[in-house]
TrEMBL record:
KW Transmembrane (keyword) present: yes
Entry annotated with the keyword Transmembrane helix: yes
Organism the protein comes from: Nocardioides mesophilus
Protein name: Alpha/beta hydrolase
Domain AB hydrolase-1, chain residue ranges per copy: 202-316
Regions that span the bilayer: 33-56, 62-82, 94-111, 117-136, 148-166
Amino acid sequence: MALFSRQSSLPANATPTPPAAVSDGRHTRRGRLGWIVAASLATGVLAALLLVFAPFTPVTETAITGAVLCGFAIGWVSLLLLSENFTDQPQRWAAVPAMFMGAGGLLLWVFGSTREALSWIWPPALAAIVVWMVIQVHRDLPSRGGRVQLYAVFTILALCAVGGGWQTVIAAGETNPFLTSGRLVTVDGHQLRLECTGSGAPTVILEPGAGGTSADMGWIAPAVAGQTRTCVYDRAGRGGSEPAATAQDGAQIATDLHTLLHRAGVPGPYVLAGHSFGGLYVRIFAAHYPDEVAGLVLLDSTASSQPAKSVVPAPGSTSSDTIGRAATLASLTVPVGIARLYGALVGVSGLPADNEDQLSYDTVRANTVRSVADEYMRGAATAAEAASLHDFVAKPLYVLTAGEHPGSWMADQKQSATLSTNSVWRVVAGSTHQGLLQEEQYAAQSSQAVLDVVTAVRNHQPLKASR
């Protein structure tokens, strides 16, 4: 009766407070959903990174992919649980992407052999789930901030679905053009592709720069092979070569090259020519095997750095470390089509057609992306290892520099020429860094620099630069 009296005493125009608006400690304002969405998405990204870099996760593409998907699944579960327990707007639809990503991640993590089958299934399945999620969010999520965040995520997922389908269809009909020539030689448990042409001594070994393959030497190799034996090869994980289990810093790359040449029966002494990062590798080789190097050509080479580090690979050094995991994570751009899109946007480089085809193929390989990322992340160690070559005595050394560089680069190039008392330093006016390999007129000058060193070694004469 008292309750009835209090209700009756309200003014006639008063509006009773609806029960739903009264907080009982469990419900929050709808605006909180935006923060919950943000926290859940951040949780998914953080969980993915923690799983990727966890010691128990194998450093393989399938396991790293599985770890990322499981981490994202945790983020969707967070959205489900947080919205269920702390708001009056539960987002139960989040269970679907959680199960989809969690199941796919566990399959890849535990059964890596399912990757090929899943590559045909996940793009259309993901596209369908994205459409379904957009409908659910439009219906069940009133928070404008939350919708904006999720629609951004859905856009990324839709692009991944389209790119993944594109990558799967095109990759199914591709063959490796690098394997139409050369030979495969087993080195430390993996095969490296080597191709030698021409005849005569000394043998020239061409080393491309960071991210490069034998295809980058498309202008130089034939020109040099016309006058002496010339070899090109693909470093581990790119071109026609298999990935390596060992950490690929400069010392290991030089050691693997030495093993490759000896097992393939390629006689020394060698004239080594390296472009960019390749210049670091040939210096490390010369420091480690001085009696087998007759001359060096540094084509716009990256500068070494002090203090010098040992050029002998550390025993038992494997790719199961932070750099290896980060590089493998970078390679996940391939299954979703990002690497293929990048290759299409970069376009042609100016090399002969066959070499262009090889480079186009290699750009979109997961092994390539992984090995290139690994190479750059180990660049500091490689530059320090190259400093171990501090005296090339009086052996022929040709430093060829592209003209379009700042003064600091030129100073380093000039310093490199002081490694030998029998050296030449020449600047190629108008050439860019890549132009020394990829533009025919400038690549001809690179070829001539190599041949000048060959002539000096062959005739036991001081090095002279041809014009």
